[in-house]
Write a structure and sequence with these properties.
About 15% of the residues lie in helices and about 45% in strands. It is of the alpha+beta class. It folds into two domains: about 50 residues, no CATH class; about 80 residues, Sandwich (Immunoglobulin-like), CATH 2.60.40.420. The chain has a five-stranded mixed sheet with strand order 5-11-10-7-8, covered by helices on one side. The radius of gyration is 18 Å and the shape is globular. The two termini are about 25 Å apart.
Length: about 140
């Protein structure tokens, strides 16, 4: 699958998620029987619904390769870049551009929560193997 096809599929998936969020969040305002996954606050007697946070992508490494191939993560500048890396072996995971490296132990998971303050395209790799596992696109 080519790079442009992967980007097209990612864009299509994002559109589907946004449409689903709009449809789910567009229900009635009667909170007395609410069963959705939103947090509610009542600071001024009324209630405000906040959508559940988006799912954090998890990159799984097996035998030195990302399961399912290299992932693409896209955020807007000012947001937070969030992802996890789960591995079957000890590795150093390096996020280029932001120059952040973290160790993941065999059978363990490491989390990244990075302010997206630099726009561009950045590679995430298994540093010791020079194996790309994901690409982060920060839109201006």
């Amino acid at each position: 699958m080519g790079r442009s096809q992967r980007i097209g599929l990612l864009v299509a998936a994002v559109v589907v998620v946004v449409v689903a969020i709009v449809l789910i969040g567009g229900g009635d305002d009667d909170d007395s029987s609410s069963t959705d996954n939103t947090a509610q606050t009542t600071s001024t007697g009324g209630s405000t619904k906040k959508p559940a946070p988006p799912e954090v992508p998890t990159i799984t490494i097996k035998d030195g390769k990302p399961v399912g191939g290299e992932q693409e993560i896209e955020v807007d500048k000012g947001d937070t870049i969030r992802f996890k890396v789960k591995s079957d072996a000890d590795h150093e995971i390096h996020m280029h551009g932001y120059d952040i490296a973290k160790d993941v132990e065999a059978g363990g998971t490491v989390s990244y929560n990075v302010p997206a303050d630099i726009d561009g395209i950045f590679e995430i790799e298994i540093e010791d193997l020079k194996e790309p596992i994901a690409e982060v696109r920060v839109n201006p």
